[in-house]
Structures are given as structure tokens and as C-alpha cells.
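Our consortium's second objective concerns turning raw sequence data into structural hypotheses that experimental partners can test. To show how far this objective has progressed, the report includes one record in full. It was chosen at random from the queue rather than selected for favorable results. The single chain below, 204 residues long, was entered without modification.
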Amino acid sequence: MSAHQEPLSSEAGRRAMLQSIVALVLAVFGAKACSIMRFDEGSRELVFEAVAGEGEDTLVGRRIPASTGIAGWSLASEEPISIDDVLSHPRFDREVAEQTGYVPTKLTVFPLLYGEESLGVLSVLDAGATAHFGLAGMESLAHFASHAAMTLAAVAAARRAEASRDEAPLQALAEAIDSLGEQGRRRALTLIAALEPLIRQDGA
């Protein structure tokens, strides 16, 4: 089964969907690059999840501070922004752009909103000369952003579910130990300490 045929219920399917979105935006707007970055609330960073055009072979997985530049502003304000000369814009962080390997002249960033959450941003770098990010252009980009946001929401939900499954046995054990009373807890913890070397050996 090829990547684009993967079901959206799978991690590979969701990643393929995100990649198809940036590839389509790149083609529609004749851009040099397009990316989707996911907001990692725990680390307060933006993570490149999908990239088309410049940087597509090197940027996926790279992280930048969520407060960085124009993308960070769009994420925090939950507002789209389109700039024709980013090099003179006060919010543009050239140093971070250089670290990604491509410094754009024009930049459009759209927040990825799902419900009350700001899940990340969709960025379009150096759209072609015929591309116009007026009302019609921003409305078109909003449709792509909506699909990207829904996919990121699915990614987040799947990861939370996976984490919950991993933590459930430990939580159940902790609750069972707490229900034993002080003397029972001491005996249970002593038994766990004695079994730990055998568990580690069995899992090795």
C-alpha cells in the first residue's frame, strides 16, 4: 500500500494527508516552499510536520521556539498574516529563517485552528508572481488550513490515546496499592522492589 493509500486512522495516513496538503498549496500558489508546523504545548515549540519545496528533505521534525517570528505571532494571535517584504518586517526572525536553509522575501502564515485550540500554522513562502493573497486568496488558503487543522487534531487525539493506554496499567497499579492501607502499601512496595530485577531481566 502506497503512502497516499494509508488510512487516516494510521500515523502514516495522517502524515501523508499533511504532505498532500502542503504539496497542493505549493502547486496552487506557485510557491517556493510550504510547510505545516504543529504546536507542541509541552515544549512550547513549533515542529515541522510536513514540508514541500525548499527544505522538504531536511526540515521535517525540526523544532523552533513557538514565540519565533511571524509564525509565532500568527499562532499566538490566531490571525492570518500576509507580508510582501518580510526582510523589512519587525517580526521577521532572519536568523531562524537562515537556520532552516531558506530565507523568503514574501510570506503568508495561516493559523491552524480547531475548536478553541491553535494547533499550529500553515506557511507559504514566496508565492508566485500571479498569486494574490487578497480576500479570495486568503479564503482559498483557509480551506487548506481547515483540512490541515483537522488532521493535526486527529494526530493529537491519537497520541493522547496512545499515552493513555501506556499509562493506564501503572495508574491502576498505583490506585490498587493506595487502597491497601499503610501496612499493605509497605508490603506491596517491598514486593515490587524485590521483583524489579527479575522484571528488568525478563524485558532485556
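The partners drew two points from this record. The radius of gyration is 22 Å. The chain has a mean pLDDT of 80. Both points have been shared with the crystallography group to help prioritize constructs.
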